[in-house]
Amino acid sequence: MSVVVQASGLSKKFGQTAALEDISFSVNESEIFGFIGPDGAGKTTLFRIITTLLLPDSGEIKVLGLDGTRNFKELRMEIGYMPGRFSLYQDLSVEENLEFYATVFGTTIEENYYLIKDIYSHIEPFKKRLAGKLSGGMKQKLALSCALIHKPKLLVLDEPTTGVDAVSRSEFWDMLSRLREYNITVIVSTPYMDEAMRCDRIALIQNGKLLAVDTPTVVKNEFRRKLFSIRSAEKHKLIIALRSLDETISSFPFGESVHVTFKNDRLPDNLDLSLRERGISDASITETESGIEDRFLELIQTTEHQTA
Amino acid sequence: MKRFLGFVKKEFRHIFRDYRTLFILFGIPVAEILIFGYAISMDIKNAGVAILDLSHDEVTEKLSGKILSSGFFKKSADLLSYDEIDQVLKKGKTKAVIVFEEGFGKRLIREGKASLSIIADGSEPNTATLVTNYTTAIVNDFNIEIAGSALNNALKIVPEVRMFYNPELKSYSMFVPGVITLILILVSALMTSVTITREKEFGTMEVLLVSPLKPVQIILGKVTPYFILSFINVLVILAMSWLVFGLPVKGSIILLLAESMLYILMSLSLGILISTVSSTMQQAIFISLVGLMLPTILLSGFIFPIENMPKVYDYLSLIMPPRYFITIIKGIMIKGTGLLYIWKETFVLILMTTVFIGISVRKFKVRLE
Amino acid sequence: MKEKVIEVENLVKRFGHFTANDRLSFDVYEGEIFGFLGANGAGKTTAIRILSGLSSPTSGKVKVAGFDAGTQAEMIKRNIGYMCQKFSLYEDLTVRENIALYGGIYGLSRSEITERTAQLLDRLRFREYENKLISDLPLGLKQKLSFAVAVLHEPRIVFLDEPTGGVDPITRRQFWEMIYETAERGITIFVTTHYMDEAEYCDRISIMNDGRIVALDTPSNLKKQYNVSSVEEVFIKIARPGVG
Predict the structure, then answer these.
(1) Segments making up each domain of chain C, as ranges
(2) Which residues of A touch C196 (CB under 8 A)?
């Protein structure tokens, strides 16, 4: 397995603010590598460095064995890039957009049709429609088709699932998985933790720093504490009650329940009673498995001083 | 080449799909020509003329009778002295005053030559021109008549035309060159800068940069459609000014078209330059309008004669490209001058174009910073 | 039983021959966090426009905060708050100026504005930021402030559109805690979102498909009913029947 992207010690500043600090990672051929982190974490800046649109202040990056500073022209031939806002011409039709990107990269739709067929067939019935009139999900599929039309070796997708409904998102991830068979490497970013499990490897990114890089399962399992899930109809009261206990390390709302960790990894004695004293009479407590988001929370807390 | 053509095709699609762009491209020039044209080209009929006859002899009576019975004029007043001229013109009803000098008839017979003054109100330049032209024509007609009847065929009345208020009669001869100058810089610079910044705003520029397209290809691809359309615009304006208003091009059409191409090229490179310094369409529009259109209107001599401006503005107008083009186009269209007389202006435009292109290509970034 | 703040019975909205909302019926209660879900084009936006008094129904009964959506739209607007994912704060005004501006828009008196601004700044621990421009605030703080401003006039209902999209997990939780607290005060929270893990935080959710409400229950009941482990899977099963 060869390395497609090798980055070491990347840093980038915009004025006073550090967008990226000492970022190192490597991406292997044919894998789906996900950068998971909130808006403003530095994902877009990093992607622009990978696609040679920006130069890092320091550090080194090699993409497909090429140097982004000197060999950017050769490199750009091999990259398919989909920026954060789907880069489509709103006043051109579906077909015209695809045709344009094909000609720009010196190819034709026919030549690489097999590659996009799976994706493009969803929107082909609407090929005469203007791109501006498409739904979020269809725009996303068209943008992906455009980024793929020249058969790039590396596909860089910046937040491709933002503003797209759950069904389309799920289809989108299925399509990305199928690109593996064409040896296309995919680097993707998302602020949504639940999408992490669809990647082969992930990097958690926050405030321009990587907090963890590994397979989703390993990252998830690095959460070593026992995690309890507590439910009550009165969630706000429950959180306040839990935080007032000496034994509580952390308590956060998590969907319908509250995820809690305790000192010594065990439930405090008389927890039920203590909660009852604090006005919670319907608490149901179970031990639960941690997810990526739990680990992310833990990592943020240990790397930064916490406010709340 | 295929990439480039694909790009140009895409640009044409953008243009033809946006009615606003099309309107700015063709609607505005046509509308401007019509507005300017019709506002000033009304025929004269029964225009008020005052007579100041200081001679009151047979010849003057005959000539003034001929002028007034032509159907073009109607007598608005009989004046007794020069002092009344200013007053009567200021009232507005009188468009011109015809002055027969003292002893007009006697002088004509004795010296074979007499002069008649036509003093017109130059604040309405178009009417003034028409009035003086018609009067002159009638006087010439009269000259032929008396030459035929008299034995001495050297008899001659010399009309002397004088304009009050606006001696140079700016307007009529100015509007077509002015409109071309304005429209070309507006269309070329504004449109190119907007179309490039639009790609930045929509994020498509990022993808173009990451594509194998070279910056030169992107720039040329953007500019070619506008070059073609602007050139068509010149043809349309010239054809209209000739067909609708009968304003011919006195000099060489080829030279005029070549100079127009140079000016379009200059405007386009200015547009690219604007787009490299602005990151949103709004910025580009603002810079184009405030930085180009206003100075073109105010400082190019289009509306306000440069000679009458304070020296500072005169110097300031030296850096305005439209100033040179307006001199060139006026020369060719109205005076019929050749390259010999406008090579300096042409040279300045070539120089400016080269500088703008040079700066834009250097400033056009292959990356996002 | 708690008071109903939104009552919808057989709501129909047609545009020409197209039926955007087809006989919707649901109630939302005081202090409830209600998730309103649906794929792109399912008719969510149309329904929300009606509920917020921006459009009137073709037929059916719609009461929001006790007012009729067909005839008393102005009264509805006065009793609701709104926060969309693109924060409605003015970037070039300070925190304090934004609060005062919205207070003014909703007709609060000068003394009310002063009083609530003070409360809000304390509750959010925003004292140190009060004279900073919005553009200088980090994303998470902007989000909290937008929400606080949306409920500044103590509306009966507040509409949130993808409230926690794109924020980090900590900020996200702080934001949900703020929502819980607001709901506890009796303000109804009406959430629309594409993100199903956001839906997991709601008390009850409804899922729209093709102009109709096809599911309405608590997240856990729906998961049980469809025998899956996440709302996302419920959603996909409903929106794409036959597949998966």
Answers:
(1) 89-154
(2) 166, 194
